[in-house]
Amino acid sequence: MSCIFCKILSGEAPATIIYRDEQVSAFRDFHPIARTHILIIPNHHIDSVNELEPGDELLVGHMVLVAKELAKQEGVAEHGYRLMINTGVHGGQTVPHLHVHLIAGKLARFLVG
Ligand code: 5GP
Ligand code: ZN
Fold first, then answer.
1. Each residue of 84-93: pLDDT tens digit?
2. pTM of the entire predicted model
3. Going by fewer Cβ within 10 Å, which terminus of the chain is more open, N or C?
4. Ligand 1, from 95, 103, 111: best to mutate by most atoms within 8 Å of Cβ?
């Protein structure tokens, strides 16, 4: 498996992992585009939103709730943040392992990622 995010999950590649449960993990983006930039990913490989199937609703909902909790933990919940899921080449997806960006900071609303 050559997926960089799967390597982060297995510990083969380094990352600052800040959250993990049975379904998802979260770590800091290594090229942050705002003061807070965290990626929330499923613990098993799914290429993108295009590969989601009926039955994945709980997983996707859980990713959003984890993002909400991390926003609170980061102290950015009150001022707000952006959750973003890029999909495919035209959607700006560069890593083909499903991920939610949690982006926050004064300028987060101007960023398109
Ligand atoms: P995408 O463009 O696919 O929506 O987002 C991929 C994100 O993953 C980018 O913001 C990029 O900086 C981040 N990224 C890519 N490779 C790595 C890595 O090896 N470690 C970490 N921490 N972030 C990565
Ligand atoms: Zn993967």
1. 999 999 999 9
2. 0.96
3. N
4. 95
| Ligand number nearest to the C-alpha of 111 | 1
Atom of ligand 1 nearest to the CA of 16: 22
Looking from the CA of residue 84, the nearest atom of ligand 1 is 4
Collect the ranges in the chain with pLDDT lower than 70.
1, 112-113
State the catalytic residue, choosing from 37, 97, 99, 101.
99
- Give 3-state DSSP helix, strand, coil % of the chain, rounded to 5: 25, 20, 50
Q: Is 99 a catalytic residue?
A: yes
Q: What are 30's two structure tokens?
A: 């290594």
